[in-house]
Design goal:
This protein has 169 residues and is α/β, with parallel strands linked by helices. The protein folds into two domains: 78 residues, P-loop containing nucleotide triphosphate hydrolases (Rossmann fold), CATH 3.40.50; 79 residues, GMP Synthetase, Chain A, domain 3. It is built from five helices and seven strands; from the N terminus they run αβαβααββββαβ. It has a three-stranded mixed sheet. The protein has a two-stranded parallel ribbon with strand order 1-2. The chain has a two-stranded antiparallel ribbon with strand order 3-4. β1, α2 and β2 form a beta-alpha-beta unit. α4 crosses α5. The longest helix is centred in the middle third of the chain and has 15 residues.
Length: 169
């Protein structure tokens, strides 16, 4: 992994693009039983910000796993266009809240009213809450992981927008 590889991956991530990490020239690597795992661990360490991206080791010269790469491209493209109904999304959010209560600050607890998917390519979700300032990045990551556990979204960034619902007087 080079710094340039990391920058390119960062540009793709920041642009909300689907990502597959394809490691070419795998036929030239001297391998033992742990080579694949060591390479994957090193890649994940350097590119931790795109942990949703699948990794595939290929050889363009020999054609090793090139067909699998094309299948993976189709999977990521389908995930990029995946739409979740509001009802199913809210079931996932409610289950997540029951398993792990939202954060609180100075006696005020974050309340999640509901969520909806507002776009695809990349998937974007709007979550209505009582106070945006109470949404901690770790809880946002937790919600993302819950959605990924149910729907995968392999190779695809998930975007969130938290909107504060006006309080009723």
């Amino acid at each position: 992994m080079t710094e340039q590889d990391s920058k390119i991956a960062g540009y793709a991530h920041d642009s909300g693009k689907g990502i597959i990490i394809a490691v070419n020239k795998w036929d030239l690597i001297k391998k033992d039983t742990n080579t694949y795992l060591e390479f994957e661990r090193d890649i994940r360490r350097v590119l931790g910000f795109i942990n949703y991206a699948p990794i595939i080791f290929i050889s363009a010269l020999t054609g090793q796993r090139v067909r699998r790469l094309l299948e993976l491209i189709n999977i990521v493209n389908n995930n990029y266009s995946l739409r979740i109904s509001t009802g199913v999304l809210n079931d996932i959010i409610n289950e997540a809240v029951l398993m792990n209560q939202p954060p609180s600050d100075k006696g005020r607890r974050l309340k999640i009213y509901y969520g909806t998917q507002v776009s695809v390519r990349p998937p974007k979700f709007v979550i209505f809450v009582n106070d945006r300032d109470l949404m901690h990045f770790s809880y946002e990551r937790y919600l993302e992981n819950q959605i990924r556990n149910h729907f995968g979204f392999s190779g695809v960034p998930i975007l969130f927008e938290f909107k504060q619902r006006e309080s009723k007087i």
